[in-house]
Every structure is written in structure tokens, then in C-alpha cells.
Write a structure and sequence with these properties.
single chain; mainly alpha; 1 helix
């Protein structure tokens, strides 16, 4: 069963993807 591995990877990747999207949408601020 690799369901726990998939869920763990999603939990670990979700914040990174969210942060990348926010940084891409947010204007470049110092």
C-alpha cells in the first residue's frame, strides 16, 4: 500500500506549491 506515501508527499509538496504560486502572483517586494 503506497497510499500513506502519496498522502505524505502531498502534505509535503502542498506548502511548497502554494508558496510558489503566491510568490509568482505577488509583486516583487524587497
Amino acid at each position: 500500500m503506497a497510499t500513506h506515501l502519496v498522502s505524505a508527499s502531498v502534505v509535503l509538496l502542498a506548502p511548497i506549491i502554494f508558496r510558489m504560486q503566491v510568490m509568482a502572483k505577488a509583486p516583487s517586494t524587497p
